[in-house]
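Page 42, continued from yesterday. The earlier attempt failed because a stray header line got pasted into the input along with the sequence. Redoing it now with the clean sequence only.
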Amino acid sequence: MPIEPGAPVQSDPASSAGAEPSSGAGQSSGTADSTVLPPIPRAEIIGEDMTFERGGYIEEADMVAFSDGVSRAGGWSQEKLLVNGESVYVSEAGCTASLRYTAAQAPLVVEGNDRASTEALFRFMDPSILPEYLVPTSWLWGQTPSESTASIEFLTYVQEATGEAPASAVSLRLFHATGTGLAFTVSCPANDELTAAVADIRSRISVVPPG
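This time it went through. C-alpha cells are written below.
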C-alpha cells in the first residue's frame, strides 16, 4: 500500500488499535546493531558511512536533519516547505516527492537497534510490510549533497504501479537513540519514472550528521 505524502507518521503508536509494535520488533530479521561501539573521533562519525551497525554513534540528545537541495533542482516545483515537518515537491513528469521528519516513536524503538526500529515503524504504518520486503538503500550523509562523501543506510519499500495506483518507494530510518526518524517517499505514475525520480531525489538531499 503506497504511503501518501502528507499522511502523518503518528506520534503515539501505542494508541493504534491495529498496531502491535512490540510484536513487529520481535519478528525483526535485521542484524542487531546493539554491540557496544568503540569511541572514535567525531570526524570519523561524520566522514564514514552511517550503516545500521554504526547507529550507536548517534546519541540521545542529537538532532538528525536533512539538507534539501530539491528546491534548486530543475524539473521539480515546491508545494510545501517544512509544513508539520514535511516538504513536498512535484516533478514535470508527474512524480511527487515527500521529505519529512517523523514525530517521536518511542513505543516502536528497539533498544540499541536502528534496523529493527525501522522495521517496526514500517509495520506500524502498514502491517502488511514485512521485514523481508524491505531493501537496504544508501542516501547521502553529509552537511550538503554536494559536500557528502559518505552514505547513510535506510530501509526502502518499493511498490510497482498497478491499475490506477502509482508506483512508490518509501525510505525510512528510525534512530533508536533519539526516537525520531526520517521518511523519504517518491511516487510516480509508472515504474520507469519512479526509478529515475528516486535517483534524482537521492542525489539532491543529504542526511546531516549531528554535531
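Notes: The domain at 58-190 is CATH 3.40.1000 (Protein Transport Mog1p; Chain A).
Reminder to self: strip header lines before submitting.
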